[in-house]
Structures are given as C-alpha cells and as structure tokens.
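Continued from yesterday's entry.
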Amino acid sequence: MDVLGGIRRHRGVASGPGTGPQTGTATGSAAGTAAGTPAGTAAGTAAATETAPWWRRTGPVLDPARGRALLASPRWRGALAVLCGALPALAFPAPSWWWFAYVALVPWLLLARSAPTGRRAAVDGWLGGLGFMIAVHHWLLPSLHVFTLILAALLGLLWAPWGWLVRHLLGGAPSAGRAAAALLVLPSGWLMVELVRSWEGLGGPWGLLGSSQWQVEPALRLASVGGVWLVSALVVAVNTSVAVLAAHRAARVPALAGLVAVAAASSAVWVWSPRPEAAGSIRVAVVQPGVMNGLGGVDKRFAREEELTRALAGRDLDLVVWGESSVGHDLADRPDLAARLTALSRQVGADILVNVDARRSDRPGIFKSSVLVGPEGPTGDRYDKMRLVPFGEYVPARSLLGWATSVGKAAGEDRRRGERPVVMDVGHGLRVGPLVCFESAFPDMSRHLTREGAQLLLAQSSTSTFQHSWAPEQHASLAAVRAAETGRPMVHATLTGVSAAYGPSGERLGPWLGTSASATAEYEIPLATGTTPYARLGDWPVYTALGVLALFGAAGAARAFRKPAPERQGPPARTAHGSPARPGR
C-alpha cells in the first residue's frame, strides 16, 4: 500500500448506450457518446458518479501515481523530508506526546528507503536532520535568527549517512536478513549521530530522542541501565520495525521479532535492574523570582530573591537554591551582598546556593559560578561552569564568526570555563553536586558527580530569553532523565521557570513552578544509596553501537572482496568476409 499518494480530482466517464429495459434505452440514447452533446456528457458523468466508490464521490482522493510523480520532484521530495524530520519534536515538551516517538520516524524511514539512488537517500537524511534540528531548537530563532538555520543545515549533515543506510538496508524488497540487520544497524547509526552532536562545541546533547521519555517509568528504568543512549536506541528500533511492517510484509517476521525483543528487554530490565535504596530525606526550597528586566533588573532580582527567601524562615530546611545568574556581582567585590546572604542563611537556618554571573576578583574574565553561603558567610565552595553554551555564552572561532553578534543576541564577550567539577558539603553530612544551565543535558557530568559522592544533583538555570517557548519545559524535563540514570535525586532551580524536583528513579516530586510564577517551592527529597548500572558502566550502548557498525562495515567489505570480477568477453566471431558474425546466421 502506497502511503505517499498525491491528490487528484475524480473525472467521470460517460456511460455507453443503454441496453436495459425501455427506460434504459431512452437514457442510453441521451447519454451515448455518439451524440456528443453536453447533456449526454453530464448524464454520463452523473451515472458514473453514482456508481463510483464513496471516496471517489467525495472529491479529492489519494492517487499513488500522482504521489510518485511528486516524489520524483526534488523540490517536493525535499520539502517532505524536512517535514518528516521535524515530526519527532512533538514527542518532547511542551506537547510531550511521548508515545508518538515510537512511530515519529516511520515517515522519514519510508521516504529514505524509496529514494531512487543512495545519493538521494543521503540527501533525504540531511534534509530530515535539518527539519529535526529546526523543530527541536526553533526557540533559538528570535535570538540567533538566520544563524539558527545555518547551524541546523550543518548539523543536519550528520544524518546523511544514516539516510544512506536506510535505503541500503530497507530499499526495494528487503530480505529477512537485511531487515534483521536494519534493526541493529539503524539504531546504532542514530546513536552515532547523537554522540557526535553531543559535543558541546556543536550545541550539546539537547533533543536526544531518549529524553522524550522523561515521564515514562519503564523508559526511566532503562535509562538507569544504559543511560539516555539505550532509550534512544530502543525507540529507533521500534520505529524501524514499524517501517518494515508498513513497507514490506514479506519481512514481517524479523520486524515482529524486533518488537518482541524490545518488549522482552524492557521487561527484563524492569525485573532485574536494581532500585535505589532509600536513605532518608531532606527538605530543599527553590527560589524563583520571575522576570526582572530593564533598568536595575539585577538589583531588583536580588531584592525579590531576598524577600522570597526571608519568608522561608522556620520551615526546617536543609538547603535553599537560587537560579542561574541570581547574583550579578562577585561577592568578594561586594561584601554588602555577601553580608545580606549570610544574614538570610542565619534567618532561614540553612545554607543558600546562589549563582554568580560576574567578573571574578581573583582572575580575569567573566565566570558563571555556583557559590555556597552559610550562616558564617561564603563557605569557600565554588563551582565555575565548565561547559558553555555556544553563541549564548561564547562565540566559537570569534575571529571568523563574530559577525553573529550583529544578527542576533550572541555573546558580546566570552565567558571563561571552569576547570573541574565540585562536590560541596552543605552540612548534616549532605553532599551536593551543582551543574549550571545546559550542563544538565550532559549525561557524563551528572554521572561523574555521582561517582564523586554527590547525594543530590542540582541544576541552576535561566531560560528567561526563551520564556514563551518550549525551552523551559524541555530543560526541566532533562533533570528527570539525569536522576534516573544516576539513582540520585535532582533539583532544577531557575530564575523564571520551569523549576522542578525529581526523585532517585526520575519520578516527579511536588509541583512545577511555571514560567509565570514568582514564588518558592519546598520539596521533600528522598535520598538513595547504591550505584546504577549506568553510573557504574558508563556509555556502554554507544560503544556497542560502534561495534555493530564496525562489524557491518567489515561484513560489507568482505562481501565486496569475495565478489568475483566480471569475466572479460573475447572479440566477436568473424565471418569469412571479415565482418562480425550475426546471431542466428
């Protein structure tokens, strides 16, 4: 069944002369093609319409021939590839159609497998990747403008080899062996794309397919075993199985086997994977001041944070967390601010973790730093952000790309990088691991903090630039995946929303603070001990995918080596007169 049909309008066919009873003879003479009159044509059309199926009588219908003609057009095919690539974005917040992730790649797969050549399939992969990157990062358009499209086009190239692989394995009438290979190779190829684009210089791991399952408990259990990578691979495997079932029923056995294997693996993980072991609880408060822009915005924000924090006195808290850039001055340069924070800590009875976005007094440049303040003043614990947002906090190769500051809101001055992660002791034996902004998107950073002894993960963020987009909810959802991967609870504290907290299994704790809130939220955070398989073993699904692709490439090279060369044909036979012999003579 061709699901990529075009649109046509039904054309009636005039009926021939009547051959029925007396009334039929009269009708036939009026509708006969020999008469050629308009009345006859109209009557014939009406008669054909009455006998046509209902879907033809309703007007436009799907026409497979027309659809094939459209797909032969590079322009229409390219537009369809961009659209197909954008579909998976609907599985992420804010729509959060998590279930859609398991079929969202199917149209893209079917399109790439139908490509007439491998080169065209690679183009389909590139354009689909372009559509995916634009859809997942569309909220960057107001800030980076046309540069968003340029970055999406460049990163979309990562999917070109994947598109070629789709056609190579699923094109035409795939055998059972090719279909079975596709269930391993295509998810592995997708993981390689996610791995490469996860490099911070290319924008980081925002929009990894597995992250769309942040609220699905079985998927979070899988993340505790193999991280977000394992979830991504299984989602792509399900999509591949569905595409094989839709495109070629003769290969339905391996496709169904793939679906059964995914279900069996998920069930096995559910039964076998260790659960976090409860180890008491703590009380943490998040302070979210809301949007404070304009003249004096930094001071107004601090005053609002101070007011909200003061209201937490007597709440028996263990820690208070402020968002990213919550303090606009280095505390060593502003002892008055340090004194106010110290007084707040004494009044509330808990340490306060703030985030300073300012020039440091002891070294050159601007840093974003998590700073812990206790009842006796700053404790000396400080974490400087290590992974910076490209164009938002620094401009890569500024000498070449510095023009980006003139077409968007790229950083006018590069922030400086921190040197190492830090685990802080906030008293009562509690150790916390802070992350800043989109560092919560990197699985390896939270895993490292957990291995260093962090009992609670903290992310300080600010998405005020993208306040009315999907970005705040997408960012908050990442903390659920990090919590499940490490078996450690995580708190996501922002200036302007969305603020949230998650338990050691990734379960949501209490209410979110939305983007319209200027308030505090208190969370009872369950602590846990033990080590998840992912925290212990690391990114083993990525290495497995590399092995699968290496074996696939080696097998292809071996087949090419064993293939005999075509035999050279001798010269044509000659006749007695010296002319080539003719067949049959």
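--- second protein ---
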Amino acid sequence: MPAHSQKIRSFFAFEIPESAREWIARHIIAPLKEVPAAVKWVERQNIHLTVRFLGEVEPKVLRKLVDTVRNEWEDIGVINLTLGETGYFGRNYPRVIWVGLNGEIEKLERVHDFLERTCRKTGLGSDDKKFAPHITIGRVKSPAQTGKLIAAMKKIEIEPVEIKFSEMVLFKSTLTPEGPIYEALEHFAL
C-alpha cells in the first residue's frame, strides 16, 4: 500500500470474472449504447461490485483499516451468484444503470455489514445508504432520451451467468478525464 501522506480515494469491491464482464459488455452495454442517451458507460475492465466506498482516506487510517480487516475477518467462503435483471437508481430519471444479482446475497450482506462495523471502529463513520448489491454499468449525464433507455433495458434478456467470488479487493481509484483508473492495493481471501 502507498506510504505517502496524500489521501487515497478507495473502495472495497469484488472483481467480476472476465467471462461475466464480457457477457455484460456484449449483451447488455452494447445494445444499450444504441440508444441515443447521454450515458457514460463503464469500461469492461472496470466492471466490478462495490461493497463499501471509502472516499478520500488518509494512508495512516487506510493502513489501520486494512490491519483491522485482516485481524477480524470472518470466514465467509466462496460467494456464488448469477446475473439478475437490469435496473436503475434515480428519482426523476435514471442516473445510475445497473445489473442486479441473484444467489448468495446474504453472504454479500455479511461482508458489507462487517466492513461497516470495521469502518466505524477505525473512525471512518457509517455509510447511510442501504446496501443494494449491484454492478454499475453506466452513469446517465442528461435526462434526454431516458424513456427510450428504460424501454431498451426492459427488452434485454439476461442469462444466469455464473459469478463466483473467492476474494475481496481494496482498490485505489484515480479519476482522470478519460475515466477512473483502478489499482488493487490489498486482497482478502474469503
């Protein structure tokens, strides 16, 4: 992990296997890109499942968090999931386009709850949002044409593509004009 004193934008996540990322890119994102809506689509290599976003964190605090996670980690075992329906977050119009998950959701919730307790314990505070496991695939930039986007989402037929998680990753996120760059800092076996 970096030893510098500059804050690190970071999050805990599960990496989506390449076969599932490829399926999402080809069978969900590609058809939705045909809709003339202003959406910033997630690059295939960046598709992941965020369990806990940390934000900008001092390296010393991040080190303490990593040590606490390592020392208190609960053995959960492999998490078996499949892709679920597409959906979106947003009140007046879709803002975040996502793919849901089916399967061992309770294991994901256990990981999230553990991270919440650990974040509070290390002084990072709580995430007020209810945990809703999903894979973000796009961020809507304008409400124009979102009706067509929703209609296109409803037409997509999702296959139950299998996803197995055997480790969680702490990522550093560097924002660039071209999009975020993710760097794995730590790995935690389930």
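The mean pLDDT is 94. The radius of gyration is 17 Å. Will compare against the first tomorrow.
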